[in-house]
């Protein structure tokens, strides 16, 4: 008999079929089914599959009194109460590394889209507007790209930007000894230096509004912001105000504080490019993350057997 697995996130039919080979899936990807399942049909599960945004609370862990393992389908786990899990002896495993390339690709796509104004140029072309009447967008080559958070994903973004002949600088909790990019001790310092700032930090309380009014002012009217980390990292109200005042060149966001609803404060701006938290999603990345979850679960139960 297969063990039960409580799934709190959306899965494709293919992913459900793959995971279903090892587990009996209790599928609760929305609040209503989640609230019913945890004290009900799922109360004796030993494994939960979630992600960093969806998380799992301390109260939910206590209700699931047989819980042994919480897995995040992706690198983030900011909304999984890890401190409480540690007290309960519950293990946490993530899909770190499974979608790094996909996120880095998307980050550079947003850099290109917002700096080169590609969405608006598409609209202009369809309307029969030719180039002589349009404002010239800047090129990437020779520009400075700053990465806030030079972890695995941040390093891959930096490598891609370097291929565009951009100069790279970074902010990190500490200086890295495995890169020769210019290091900055604060985000405002990095923002003052760079032409485009890409946020690639984890989410959570420690990075909430890491980019706010001061950092946006430092970027300036010719600067651009790209966020592929978590919506909480950027102060949306401050970003809207900077754009409204013409104090920022533009922004490309895959994540925002209002998820899954669009950031209404930003919809009026033509120099904002939005995508629906898709940076980490590709067929290859999803397959890799599902496979890693299965490996993590197998390793856990082989140790506890």
Q: Which structural traits does this protein have?
A:
305 residues; 12 strands; 7-stranded parallel sheet; alpha/beta
Characterization of this structure:
With 305 residues, the protein is an alpha/beta fold. It is built from eleven helices and twelve strands. A seven-stranded parallel sheet has the order 8-7-6-9-10-11-12. Helix 8 (187-193) runs parallel beside helix 9. The longest helix is centred in the C-terminal third of the chain and has 22 residues, at 283-304. It is elongated and about 70 Å long.
Give the helix/strand layout.
Layout: E1 4-7, H1 13-20, E2 24-27, H2 31-37, E3 47-50, H3 58-63, E4 69-72, H4 82-88, E5 91-93, H5 100-115, H6 118-126, E6 144-148, H7 152-163, E7 167-171, E8 182-184, H8 187-193, E9 196-199, H9 213-219, E10 224-227, H10 236-244, E11 250-253, E12 272-274, H11 283-304
Parallel strand pairs: 1-2, 1-3, 3-4, 4-5, 6-7, 6-9, 7-8, 9-10, 10-11, 11-12
Helix pairs in contact: 5-7, 8-9
* Rg over CA atoms: 21 Å
Going across the major beta sheet, what is the strand order? 8-7-6-9-10-11-12
Largest β sheet strand count, sense and barrel closure: 7 strands, parallel
Question: How many strand elements?
Answer: 12
Strand/helix succession: EHEHEHEHEHHEHEEHEHEHEEH
Low-confidence segments, given as residue ranges, are none
Count of alpha and pi helical runs = 11
End-to-end C-alpha gap? 15 Å
The helix content is 25-40%
How does the overall form come out from the CA principal axes?
elongated
Q: Helix- and strand-based class?
A: alpha/beta
Mean pLDDT over all positions: 96
| Percentage beta strand | 15-25%
């Amino acid at each position: 008999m297969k063990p039960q697995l409580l799934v709190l996130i959306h899965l494709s039919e293919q992913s459900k079929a793959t995971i279903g080979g090892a587990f009996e899936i209790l599928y609760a990807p929305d609040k209503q089914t989640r609230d019913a399942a945890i004290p009900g049909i799922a109360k004796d599960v030993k494994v939960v599959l979630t992600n960093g945004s969806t998380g799992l609370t301390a109260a939910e862990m206590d209700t699931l009194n047989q819980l042994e393992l919480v897995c995040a389908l992706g690198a983030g786990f900011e909304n999984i109460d890890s401190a409480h899990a540690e007290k309960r002896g519950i293990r946490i495993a993530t899909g770190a590394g499974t979608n790094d390339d996909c996120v880095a690709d998307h980050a550079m796509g947003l850099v290109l889209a917002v700096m080169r104004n590609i969405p608006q140029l598409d609209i202009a072309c369809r309307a029969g507007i030719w180039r002589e009447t349009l404002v010239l967008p800047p090129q990437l080559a020779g520009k400075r790209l700053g990465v806030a958070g030079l972890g695995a994903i941040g390093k891959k973004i930096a490598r891609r930007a370097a291929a565009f002949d951009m100069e790279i600088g970074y902010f990190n909790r500490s200086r890295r000894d495995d890169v020769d990019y210019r290091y900055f001790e604060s985000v405002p310092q990095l923002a003052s230096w760079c032409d485009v700032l890409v946020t690639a930090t984890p989410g959570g309380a420690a990075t909430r509004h890491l980019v706010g009014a001061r950092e946006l002012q430092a970027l300036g009217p010719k600067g651009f912001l790209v966020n592929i980390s978590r919506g909480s990292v950027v102060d949306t109200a401050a970003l809207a105000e900077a754009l409204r005042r013409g104090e920022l060149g533009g922004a490309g966001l895959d994540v925002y504080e209002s998820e899954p609803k669009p950031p209404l404060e930003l919809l009026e701006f033509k120099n904002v490019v939005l995508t629906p938290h898709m940076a980490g999603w590709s067929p290859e990345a999803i397959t890799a993350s599902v496979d890693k979850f299965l490996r993590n679960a197998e390793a856990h139960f082989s140790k506890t057997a």
